[in-house]
Amino acid sequence: MAAAVAIGERGRGRTAPNPSVGCLIIKRGRIVGAGWTQPGGRPHAEAMALAEAGTKARGATAYVTLEPCAHRSLRGPPCAELLAEAGIARIVVAVGDPDPRTDGRGLDRLRAAGIEVVVGAGAAEAERSLAGFLSRVRLGRPFVTLKLAMSLDGKIALPSGESRWITGEDSRAHVHGERARADMIIVGRGTYEADKPRLDVRLPGLEPWSPRRALLTRGEGVAEWHRLGSPAAIFDLADVNDLFVEGGSGAASAFLQADLVDRLLIYRAPILIGDGKQSIGYIGLTSIAEAHRRWRLADSRMLGIDRLEVYERDRL
Predict the structure, then answer these.
(1) What is the DSSP string of 261-291?
(2) pLDDT in tens, 33-86
(3) Measured between alpha carbons, how far is residue 225 from residues 40, 176, 184, 198 in Å?
(4) Mind listing the pLDDT tens digit for each residue in 160-199?
(5) Where is the CMP/dCMP-type deaminase domain (predicted)?
(6) How far is Cα 153 from Cα 207, in angstroms, rounded to an integer?
(7) Does 52 qualify as catalytic in the annotation?
(8) Which residues define the annotated binding site?
């Protein structure tokens, strides 16, 4: 399942509002078919994997990161039906599909066809990969990642506003990889006016994966940029699974105060700035107790001279 999750990542940022699913078909210990959701949402991962496997799919085991769809579409038949017709003998599914058009019906159809169904393997990893889609279906909004690049003392710029570059090349390359997985990237008016950021992906071969750009402002918009008047406007983004908030402190504070951040990426450079611009401002807390038990450390690693810390919002 880990391999299925990994190949499902290949479609991130290009399949919304569909999920980016990964599928592997295994027979006698060998991969005979592999697929991931294609740009625009079709073909689905299962259809791709079955096309590669051909007749070898009969009697094989399929590993799929999300429950195969059960609803008919003008763009193709249900994946549960395709798997049954191909003669798959066993299917391992990481996560059930909360979309009401499927939501258990895909599994029921597979079982009715005599296919052995196993659910839950690799669920945590698959949930992370599918977080954008799952958030949009369950919560009615995209999954929100907030990126903060700061000094050891939590500053994002000098008093003059100079901020290039706080972090090193390895961190900046990692940020571009994160951009490539997002459907939309947003900054605040202050960052736009000060930096005129391109917000594109500048990694060799991934340039076409640059996300749509958005501006958080109550004022006038910018040509070719989506305008959001407030963080709550993300509930209207029906075709966005993953939203990447890149700056600056105003936008970061607004999303945190609205409690609409699901994941934090904190890039810490080994420098001290002293007086300077804070990474975030007021976020609505009235006591220290409120600040505890909100964030769970999910990852920590070195990126060249910088340290990356990844935190996930604990909403239990």
Answers:
(1) --EEEEEE-S----SSEES----S--SHHHH
(2) 999 999 999 999 999 999 999 999 999 999 999 999 998 777 778 999 999 999
(3) 20, 19, 10, 11
(4) 777 778 899 999 999 999 999 999 999 999 888 877 888 9
(5) 1-118
(6) 33
(7) no
(8) 44, 69, 79, 149, 163, 165, 179, 191, 195, 199, 202, 246, 248-254
Question: How far does Cα 185 stand from its chain's mean position?
Answer: 12
Taken in order 160, 161, 167, 173, is the CA torsion positive or negative? Answer: negative
For 138-157, how does the pLDDT look when each residue is reduced to its tens digit (9 = 90+)? 999 999 999 999 999 988 88
Instruction: Give the least confident one: 7-16, 117-126, 272-281.
Output: 272-281
Query: ω into residue 19 within 30 of 0, thus cis?
Result: no
**Binding-site sequence positions for Zn(2+):** 44, 69, 79
Rounded Cα distance between 284 and 256, Å, is 8
Q: How many CB atoms lie within 10 A of CB 218?
A: 9
* Residue 235, phi then psi, degrees to nearest 5: -70, -10
Q: Which residue ranges make up the annotated binding site for substrate?
A: 163, 179, 202, 246
Instruction: With beta carbons less than 8 A apart as the criterion, state whether 106 and 97 touch.
Output: yes
Q: Token digits for 114?
A: 């005599």
Q: Is 147:245 a contact under the CB 8 Å cutoff?
A: yes
- Give me the domains of the chain, ranges plus CATH numbers: 1-134 (3.40.140.10), 141-313 (3.40.430.10)
Judged by DSSP in three states, 172 sits in helix
3-class secondary-structure state, position 156: strand
| Gap between the Cα atoms of 114 and 133, Å rounded | 29
- Catalytic pick among 9, 46, 116, 127: 46
Contacts of 291 (CB under 8 A, 6+ apart): 285
